[in-house]
Each structure stands twice: as structure tokens, then as C-alpha cells.
Write a structure and sequence with these properties.
By secondary structure, the protein is an alpha/beta fold. The chain is built from five helices and six strands, in the order E-E-E-H-H-E-H-H-E-H-E. Helix 1 crosses helix 4 (107-121).
């Protein structure tokens, strides 16, 4: 079922644990030197800035690495910026072709899979599987709920190449 930006369903966008506070932060109280000490005076406290919300379409290596780079950026590490990242993928599990299309026993592939696992296991990036971009969620939906959208979908089929011998036995595409 497609999700519309006007949909009031609580499932989209999924609520983040560090979402914008629904109440005003507590004010600090102090008494000016000219007022009796029993009279509290409200001093405004700045509300925390809203987190930068980023949607990443595609949870293969490119999508997971994009999320990792964002969470490790200097403004995030220095505490100047909070970022909430949601990864969406049409498949029920992340990691794209690393999970679905490459022999998992290859030592180099195991290293990549372990690195991707570490990113998602930290807990600062959320994964939503079985979400098909264009059917379940559209760009307008994402724009309504996120500050930025990254497309890291990869190739789902080989591109036709106009080169001699492409049709010969033993010629394989890369996707």
C-alpha cells in the first residue's frame, strides 16, 4: 500500500527516539539582585535544535557507507549537529549484493560484510526493509519527512553495452 505524505499513519515516518521534544524545556530561575529572593524570574532557555533527518534509499554498501560517513562527520562528532538516518531497501535485509549476489565465503567479502554490520549494529542508523521506492514511498513523501534524501540504489540489471563480442558465451555483466 503506497504511503502518502498526508497519511497520518503512525508508521511513517517512524518516530525516532531523539525526535523534536513535544514540550517546552524547563526554564532556569534566578532572582535579580534588586528583587526579593523569594520571587523567581524566568530566564529563557534555547530549545535544542531539531536533528537533521536523512533518508537513504538503498541499504547496500553505498547506502550503509553514506550513513557511516554522515554519522562520523566533524559537526556530528563535535556535537554541533545531530543527525537521524533511516535506510530504506526493497529487500527484507540490508547489504544489497554483498548479501544477495556474492559468494559469502570470499575473505574480502566477509571483511566488507563485517564492516557494514558494525555500522548498523551501533544503533544510530535505522533500517526499514521491504520498502519499495516508487510503490511504497515516493519522493514527495520523503521530502515531507526528511531534510535530505540520498539515492544509493546500485544497479539492478546490466547496462547494454555496444561493444563487439558482448553476446558471446562467457561474457557477463557486472550487475
Amino acid at each position: 500500500m503506497p504511503i502518502n505524505a498526508s497519511d497520518s499513519s503512525p508508521s511513517f515516518p517512524p518516530a525516532a527516539s531523539s525526535s523534536t521534544p513535544s514540550s517546552v524545556p524547563a526554564a532556569s530561575y534566578s532572582a535579580p539582585s534588586s528583587a526579593p529572593s523569594s520571587v523567581p524570574v524566568a530566564v529563557p532557555v534555547a530549545a535544542p535544535a531539531r536533528s537533521l533527518r536523512v533518508a537513504i534509499i538503498g541499504a547496500g554498501p553505498a547506502g550503509v557507507y553514506a550513513a557511516d560517513i554522515l554519522t562520523k562527520s566533524d559537526p556530528v562528532q563535535d556535537g554541533q549537529l545531530e543527525v537521524e538516518i533511516d535506510l530504506f531497501d526493497r529487500y527484507p535485509a540490508p547489504y544489497g549484493l554483498i548479501r544477495y549476489g556474492v559468494a559469502p565465503d570470499h575473505p574480502r567479502i566477509k571483511g566488507i560484510v563485517n564492516a557494514l554490520h558494525k555500522v548498523l549494529d551501533r544503533g544510530d542508523v535505522r533500517f526499514f526493509g521491504n520498502v519499495d521506492y516508487g510503490t511504497d514511498v515516493r519522493l514527495g513523501d520523503l521530502r515531507a519527512h526528511y531534510d535530505a534524501v540520498i539515492f544509493a540504489t546500485g544497479a539492478i540489471k546490466d547496462a547494454d553495452l555496444n561493444i563487439p563480442g558482448i553476446e558471446l558465451e562467457g561474457s557477463f555483466g557486472g550487475a
